[in-house]
């Protein structure tokens, strides 16, 4: 994005020391912007030292139009081209249970692979938030449409490694609270944009979690979906994808119930839930390019839901 809601370019991202301030982790808060694995893990085939694949496609010029036609932003030659048109935000569960069965390191590997793919098409990179941990270098009022306490404009796997290695999973699973903190400033920017005529880049929010939320996001999602409807925002303006890591049956049931409950509210279809063991009911043990594609954009491009993985 440009003007009021534009991102600043990263200046050599580094993660902060755990619970201590280090301003090398991301762009300044008031700048404008934007091991061995367990057998029950869905990512158990990935080796700890594997580097993500190289991507060399040229990124298309992104449109700022709110009437973006999603059917035109992907093609066989460039299957990840859609990333140029969306901001990609990851919300990572860092509750205590994420230390079980190497879930934490497995999520780290997933982000190591996704980050360079995203950066090919969006030079701003990805933003990462944790449910509990805050980047203390980025606390305080912001002038853009992002929540405080995150890591912004991450564009390489090494930065992902530093952030994960210096963050210790601990605490509960306040999924609803963190989503509310992220959605509030973004939707305020849409309200302001409606008055000024600016365009705000659509966002895709990927929530990676291993368990049932201690702060349920249902009411929060419903409230923000209705705000989007009141603003007349395009159906692809905000997408939220819940991705289960681990094979907890309770977490799977919770995510499926969340999906069902949201449908009963009659709100816009902006949420996807993907549980362990199942794209179309099939087990997966390693994220392929197709599963990464679906994970990143599954909450926005509804036609991908029908794709066989």
From TrEMBL:
Biased composition (Basic and acidic residues): 8-23
Residue span(s) of domain VWFA: 87-259
Pfam family, one: VWA
SMART domains: VWA
Residue ranges, annotated region (Disordered): 1-67
InterPro entries linked: VWF_A, vWFA_dom_sf
UniProt protein name: VWFA domain-containing protein
Source species: Trichoderma longibrachiatum ATCC 18648
């Amino acid at each position: 994005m440009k003007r009021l809601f534009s991102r600043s370019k990263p200046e050599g991202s580094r993660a902060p020391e755990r619970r201590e301030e280090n301003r090398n982790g991301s762009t300044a808060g008031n700048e404008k912007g934007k091991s061995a694995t367990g057998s029950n893990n869905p990512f158990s085939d990935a080796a700890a030292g594997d580097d993500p694949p190289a991507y060399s496609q040229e990124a298309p010029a992104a449109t700022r139009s709110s009437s973006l036609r999603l059917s035109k932003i992907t093609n066989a030659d460039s299957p990840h081209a859609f990333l140029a048109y969306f901001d990609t935000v990851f919300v990572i569960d860092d509750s205590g249970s994420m230390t079980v069965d190497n879930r934490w390191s497995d999520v780290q590997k997933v982000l190591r692979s996704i980050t360079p793919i995203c950066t090919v098409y969006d030079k701003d990179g990805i933003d990462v938030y944790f449910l509990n941990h805050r980047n203390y270098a980025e606390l305080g009022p912001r002038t853009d449409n992002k929540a405080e306490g995150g890591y912004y404009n991450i564009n390489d796997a090494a930065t992902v490694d530093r952030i994960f290695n210096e963050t210790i999973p601990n605490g509960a699973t306040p999924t609803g609270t963190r989503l509310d903190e992220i959605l509030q400033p973004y939707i305020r920017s849409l309200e302001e944009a409606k008055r000024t005529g600016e365009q705000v880049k659509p966002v895709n929010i990927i929530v990676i979690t291993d368990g049932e939320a201690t702060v349920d996001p249902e009411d929060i999602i419903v409230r923000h979906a209705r705000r989007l409807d009141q603003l007349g925002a395009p159906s692809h303006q905000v997408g939220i994808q819940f991705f289960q890591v681990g094979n907890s049956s309770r977490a799977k049931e919770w995510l499926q119930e969340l999906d069902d409950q949201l449908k009963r509210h009659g709100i816009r279809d902006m949420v996807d839930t993907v549980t362990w063991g199942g794209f179309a009911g099939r087990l997966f043990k390693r994220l392929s390019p197709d599963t990464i594609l679906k994970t990143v954009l599954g909450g926005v491009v509804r036609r991908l839901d029908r794709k066989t993985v």
